[in-house]
Amino acid sequence: MRYSRLVICCIALGAFSCGLWAQEDKKEVRKGNSDYGRANYKEAEIHYRKAMVKDSTSFAAIYDLANALYAQKDYEGAKNTFDKISEQAGDNVYGDRYFFNKGNTSLQRKDYASAVEDFKQSLLRDPSDIQAKESYIYAKKMLEKQQNKNSDDNDKQQQDNKQDQNQNQNQNNQNQPQEQEQQEGDNSQQEISAQQAQQMLRAIQAKEKETQEKVEKAKAQKAKTRQKEKNW
Prior knowledge:
Blueprint: H1 2-21, H2 27-37, H3 41-54, H4 59-71, H5 75-84, H6 86-91, H7 95-108, H8 112-125, H9 130-231
Helix pairs in contact: 1-2, 1-4, 1-7, 2-3, 2-4, 3-4, 4-5, 5-7, 7-8, 8-9
């Protein structure tokens, strides 16, 4: 697979570069190279860090430390280490290898925009590098896919938000008649209660009137009886 081949190339370049930049005071770097060549990446990392203690600006030690971290799949650590020598890399004779390996680190982190720029910088320093060209094309293709996916995700999110708003509006519209019907029902219930009370009052008044008439009739009958008794 093309991408796997690029990663292997990145790892191999790490040990080679330090041999070119090794100096007498970089004993730890040479030890790191030896461990790196045997795939003892953790031991190599330790030696490169020791070299940085002696010379914190050593391009060779920092560059190879980044590659050792990459080999251990610590891509975030590799990226941060590469960043420490980004200014030096621009003028360094091995800047093309620096940007190529940094580009592979960006690919692993799915930072395709940075990967495109890294491989571009590598090609500017060595236009004949076929692997850098292939990596540049690959990174650009992945960046386009990522951008299209982000655009689709944003469109979907906006569509979902719009649907939620429409659903809330429809729900409000549905609730409104129900509330009106409930209010109308409550008013009807109040009107019925008042009507019933009026009917009850009329019934009571009619009953009282009937009772009063009976009382008056009884009084009249009693008076008439007394009158008859007197005539006897």
